[in-house]
Amino acid sequence: MADTLRRLTNSETCKLLQDKLEDWYKDYHINSCDQNLNICCELIELNSKIQGQLFTILNVTAREGGQYAGVETLKSRFLPWLGTCFSGTTPGLCSDSSFSLLQESLERDKRLRELSSSQEKDLHRLETQLATTRAELNSVRQDLLEAQLELEQTKTKSATTLLATEEEILQLKSDLRTAQEKLDLRKLDTIEDYERQIRLLKDEISILSAEKSVLHGRLSRSRSPSPIRHSSRSASPFTRIESPTAAQLTNSSRHSRLISRFNDIYANDRLDAQTLLRRYIDDLEMVQRIIFIATVESFHAAKMAYRQFKLRVRKSLSPSHMGPESLEDAVTDYIVRNLDLYDVQSSVNDVISAMNVNPKISFPPEVDFILISSFIREVCRVAFAMQTLEVPLDIAFAVDGELFSENKYRHTYDSEFTAPLVFYHVWPALMENDVTVVKGEAVTKRGALVKSTSL
């Protein structure tokens, strides 16, 4: 027993236990929970080593003292300490205090478990709320992305529409300049044609004047008071029996009658020709184009025929004209009295020939434009008679894609009333110099210049 006590003294375990207790006390508030637990476990291990050696000494001492040696001491001090499960440091600690400590420990554990459970519930609730908030945030982000994408698409469409509108405006301006240049060239060509015709007329006038002077010389030499020779001189291959009704018509009355006849052709003859054409052509636009071009060509052919007819009449009447009225008045009066001398069939043939080579219109191969020859004949007659007025009536110059004029034309029922350009003409406007006498009819559509160019 002495050796065991000596070894216990020499091992300095108790001193080491005391040093560790002091160090732990100093660093208790600095250490973490795990560090404190580790130190406490080390101290318990040291304490258990010391207790093991002390129990060895207790066993040896009890054997050395005999069977009943130290029994009272063990009963009075060791057994109560064992009853408290080593929790008391003094033998005077009662079982009630140890029970109360145990109950407090259980209550603390219960409260810790309750707090832990409530914290877990709160944590779970917060995690659920956080997940819901994240889902809502993702939904809001998705809506924001969709809104941004829609905004970008709207901006792109708006930019595309703006560019298309600008391109259309530029194209219209370019087409307008091209049409203006073509119109200027056509005007120049027309002016050149007029100048050429004026030169030809001047040449014919000079020739006729020379012939007139020759004829006057012959007449002065062969003039006789004989009524027979006088009557033979006044005879002319163009002399016809004058119609009293035609002779009595004034310029204003003929003006009114011709305008009325022009309106009748639009209201009746045009519709008859349109009905006839619809038997062979299903496209209403093409039918209306054919009738309009036939009307324009009829006026052109009638005016050319009138100029040629007038030259022949002037050439025939100039040698024998001696009346108080001028030669021009006499020629016009003769043409008015003898309108039936107009070779209208020749003009009809010219109109049909011009329509056969017109690139804007087409006709089925099994029929011919002669199908509407009666309509062309009536327009040629009216156009020829209009040239005999003091101020001749003529149709307005028209071209596809021109700017629509409210003073000259009316919209058709199928027109786009906000469109500024003429897609194609249905009926020409009748003009007296620059004044519109009878309005025409036209179809207006957007992009008319582009569509008419592609025809």
The gist of it:
By secondary structure, the protein is mostly helical. The protein contains 13 helices and six strands.
Task: Give a written overview of the molecule.
- The chain contains 13 helices and 6 strands.
- By secondary structure, it is mainly alpha-helical.
- The strands form 2 sheets. A 3-stranded antiparallel β-sheet has the order 1-4-5, with no helix packed on it.
- Strand 4 and strand 5 form a beta hairpin.
- Helix 2 packs antiparallel against helix 3 and helix 9 packs across helix 12.
- It is rod-shaped, with a radius of gyration of 64 Å.
- The N and C termini lie far apart (133 Å).
- About 7% of the residues have low confidence.
- Pfam families: MIEAP.
- One of its GO terms (cellular component) is mitochondrial matrix.
Which properties best describe this structure?
single chain, 455 residues, mainly alpha, 3-stranded antiparallel β-sheet, 13 helices, 6 strands, 5% strand
Low-confidence stretches are: 88-95, 223-248
Strand tally is 6
Integer-rounded radius of gyration: 64 Å
Order of strands in the sheet with the most strands?
1-4-5
Structural class computed from helices and strand pairing: mainly alpha
Q: Sheet bearing the most strands, described?
A: 3 strands, antiparallel
Mean pLDDT: 79
Q: Please indicate the percent range of residues in DSSP E strands (runs of 2 or more).
A: 5-15%
SSE pattern, N- to C-terminal: HHHHHHHHHHHHEEEEEEH
How helical, in percent, are the residues? 55-70%
